[in-house]
Amino acid sequence: MKNIFAFIFLCLCFLSCKDNKEKGKFILTGNIKNVPDQKVYLEQLYFSDKSPEVTDTGEIKNGKFSVTTNATEESLFRIRLEKNEGGYYFINDAEKIDFNADLNNADLGAPVFNTKANFILKNFLLSLDAQRKLATQSNAKMEELRSVKNNDSALNIEVARQNELRTNYNNYISQFIDTTSDPVVAMFALGYTQGMDPKEIKKIIPGLEKRFPQHQGLKELIVKVNTLFTEEPQKVKPVNSVPGIGSAAPDITMPDINDKPFSLSQLKGKYVLVDFWASWCGPCRGENPNIVAAYKKYKNKNFTILGVSLDENKEAWIKAIKNDNLSWHHISDLKGWNSASVPLYGFDGIPYNVLLDPSGKIIAMGLRDINLHQTLAEVLK
Length: 381
Description:
This protein is globular. Helix content is 40%, strand content 23%. It has 381 residues and is α+β, with helices and mostly antiparallel strands. The longest helix is centred in the middle third of the chain and has 31 residues, at 116-146. Helix 2 (116-146) runs antiparallel to helix 3, helix 2 runs parallel beside helix 4 and helix 3 packs antiparallel against helix 4 (183-190). It contains ten helices and 16 strands.
């Protein structure tokens, strides 16, 4: 079932979704507080390995700007600032969109795009963030209980609470996808189903087609996902052709950001999260703050990260590392999906990662969001 999850993640990275109700151009009017005058770029994300395309460029004057572009499809767009880190992602579900933010306020709920789809998207992310915080608190309590002898009873209670939180998390995502009124947000939420039972995902897919019969992008996604569900049992890969949990991680040697060769095997002796990503991948960039938080929390517990990029543009790769504060080792052969790492690890979409123990064996795969923190808390006691 890995290919199904990977396909969903790939779609989130690049999807341009067709919606006959949204044709022609749209205008985004923005007001960002505490930002110096500079250029602002409107970028569209594509269903391919093509980098985001700048569809319009504006000038911020006293925090205000306006950009416009033609959009015959409802898609994922991004506002990127010339001189400041990060960006703002949104859905173009209206002809006129107002945007407000404060550069000094990094809270998830602070930026506002005043359209229905974007409110739905924000509420979904805020709910996931609240659940992540509960899991983080529970992880901290488990670590505290593990340090106390003869405290198995309290520890077992907290472990049970962890399991309940994980179940509630998966149930929330499933119910959200099954009830949300926006097709693009539904597809975005599908990217968080990696920890769910594939049978539950299969139940959700048909309902989306019934609720959004005119959405061509969703139709195409459903056809391909259903094909993968049908074909997956027939595909038999040679034993050990793709590394799994318990197997030794294939070594990777590629140039780092200074063009010097660096190998995964050089990190042996530590727990290593091998993170496959790219600067052009929207979900990868969205997951980066979660990975940064995990790194800061566990870097002093014999844990590190190796970023393996599927970029082709070195400048964009290095800029993304800097903007997202990814302060660990990074390597790339700058070959995109032709990267040598893809067949070695057998993944079809990003973000994707594997967690290695100090001997170099894989002990977990595809860790994202709450599951990353829960797994690290269990392993790095």
